[in-house]
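## tool: complex_structure
## caller: assistant
## args:
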Amino acid sequence: MQLPGRFPGGIHPPAHKERSTQQPIRQLPLPEALILPLRQHIGSLAVPCVAVGDHVLKGQCIATVNGRSGVPIHAPTSGRIDALFDHPVPHPSGLSEPCIRLVPDGRDCWTDCQGFEDYRSLTTFQLLERLHDAGIAGLGGAGFPTANKLRTGVESTIHTLILNGAECEPYISADDMLMRERAKAVADGADILAFITRPQRVLIAIEDDKPEAIAAMHAVCSERDIQVVTLPARYPSGGERQLIQLLTGREVPSGGRPADIGVICQNVATAAAVERAIRHGEPLISRIVTITGDRVANPGNVEVLLGTPFSHLLKHTGLSGQADRLICGGPLMGFTLPSTDIPVIKTSACLIAASEAELPTPPPARACIRCGYCADACPASLLPQQLFWFANAGEWDKAEAFNLFDCIECGACAYVCPSHIPLVQHYRHAKGEIRALRQEKTKADQARQRFEAHQERMQREQEEQEARRRARAEALAQRSTAAQIATDDKAAKAAAVRAAVERQQKRTATDEATVKRKQLANAEERLKELKSTLAEVDADSDPRRHTRLLDSIARQEARIASLRAAVESPSTDAERHD
Amino acid sequence: MTDRLRSSPFMHGPQRTDRVMQWLILATLPGLAAQTVFFGWGNLINVFWCATLAVVAEAAVLWLRKRPLAFYLGDWSAVVTGWLLGLSLPPLVPWWTSLVAVIAAIVLAKQLYGGLGFNPFNPAMVGYALVLVSFPVAMTTNWPTPDSFLQHPLSLPQTLHQIFGNRQSATGAGVDAITMATPLDVYKHQIGRHLSQTILENPVFGHFVAYGWEWVNGGFLLGGLFLLYRRIISWHIPAGLLGALILLGAAIGWDPDRSIPLSLHLLAGGTMLGAFFIATDPVTAASSHTGKLVYGAGIGILLYVIRAYGTYPDAVAFAVLLMNFAAPLIDYYTRPRAYGHKAPKRGMGPGN
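## result:
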């Protein structure tokens, strides 16, 4: 099949796979104790549901999870819960985490397992529930809970289900051997996954350096609706995003998920585990681990119970001489183990015990000469030399702008770097710093939001207080307005009174005028009488009487004049009243 | 267990910086051989003289900077800088000119910026440009007459004497007898007054393009192709450079009676050495493939413009240095589109 896409860059490191594919998959005797970390993948810690001293059966759930951020853990064999304690776990940090120690009783006695040969009678969500309860997590890479991943596929329309059997990383051959020996289980698992996600097509992708696996898968897939696709061997073709690019010609959007473009990717070993979980009801309690490296006397693939310490594996495969390098996972993306008493977990695909000669300590890093070999090797089309420059200088914003978070840490850049710069380490450091800063920022934002909410509340309270006070004040004001209105009434009355008084005064004035007119008339009458009397009185005979009469006439005339004036201008009088 | 926590990957490819430098030196050998065959011992003496000086200068600065000598000298980058200067400088240039060039290259252009990987300018070209501007006579009058033009070509001791000793008494014939103008120089200065045909009668042009120079350029081209084959360098910078030069030569300089013909551009000066060995210095070039094409094309354009319209007959050093200035800017605008992104992020802003 002509591949519809290709990814840029990539490298062709020596594969060293033939060393571990010479023998069939082996089984190991039970170890003395199994150590089961409560966290075997990204997500929260599982919560033990057994107590120290309890006897458990093989396949019995011993730790559950709240919510969907993880999967339960099951007893890989029957035995006694010996301890709940902190123990170093297989993680790049080498740190300890809570673990359950199980001492096998040697009987390997199963709990009741209910398989469903006719899984098609179950609903999608019943199947997802079963996968979750069976503790199925991705066995290829980061160990993402399978049910969660499938749920993203169920929630969107999936056109392609990809079974990842590329196994592009050197040394590892666990998937290769699984496909060779258990092709039917893989194909059956693929059928179940297809039943859940309902894609238009199912592809199994295998690199062309695994002809036996390709043949075996072809044999079981020919009568099914599953297409086996051969990929040219090139690291990292098994990287989820690169594989999707190869098989569909499309890219998963940055920060998005494969389901966003209608694709779901599952590892072939996960498919086999799904088959066991659904059709046989067996939870995930073991996995195939490649034990290899030039220090391993009898390298090969072994089926290992989860929780088996690496020391137990090495005891049974033999160690020839001192292992200078002890690597969990492949030589390009794995991590060093600080000791061998670390247990196998769901994501442990490979253990490499190598000599210094095989995987030498890199020489001290030289300066970056910006040769660009890294950019040529980068499968994500990044500029590793620029990212290194920014990461080294602590220019996080620029590193982010140059798409640091699209780096899949495949290590192709560091593999080709002529100056032996541990580029991936720089990127991990930068990512860690940026994440820490983001967290800090989130915290600061939250603190700011809290503060602002607080401020807002305070302000609101203050405003409410203010409003209340204003309401009170208004009530008060209203009352005083009523009073005001009352006052106004008074004034009106006063005005009315005043008007009345005025009117009265006016009337009075008019009366006065009438009175004065009468007085005037009387006074004129009196003046006439006085004048006639004067005419009768002889001035010579009675001069004193004559003088009195003249005086009286003059007084009377003056009075008449003043009365006349008053009568003729009554308004002046009224005005004078105001 | 011996090793504590270490970060992946634990496998490493075969490439090493010191090997890259050694391959580079190895790839110059055909060109150096041609230089020696046609122009005598000068270049051969110069490459060793300059490389030795470069290592001494580098060691001195490293000692001053309290850096481990063996580790840093072991990257061979100083040797390469000196070597490239030895190939570029006029073969009979006096020893002190080379000395100034090498010290400027190693001390000023490289170590003062922090050493290998931190220099913004091509060290060898800084040294070259400095002496070209400072000692124009020494830099223009020491191009030797091809050996076959001389009755008595300079022997190795005579050449050494010419470079390191009393210059007049080296041959007894005087400097003029053993040196002549380069073909580019000749053509450039005569094209204003003569027709192409007349100029090309000058023996300096030989039978093909430019006597001796065509083989030297051919040698460097061969070495460059070898570097491409070994994937030591990518094709983008040489392609951009030669492409731009050819385009301009064809578009503007198509008339040999008016300007220098394309054949001389390509095979007479320092074009091939510049295109494959000098412009490709990754430290000072643009990073992405597109960026390298633009960067190379920029050098090609400047090379043509300075040769055609400038006062200098050749211009590799100036063209490279000018584009060194532009490399960071080019980088900002030629970022590749990363996986899962619709369009490449471009521009200066970090939040872009």
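## assistant note: Residues 16-179 of chain B form one domain. Chain B touches chain A through 48 residues (CB under 8 Å). Handing back to user.
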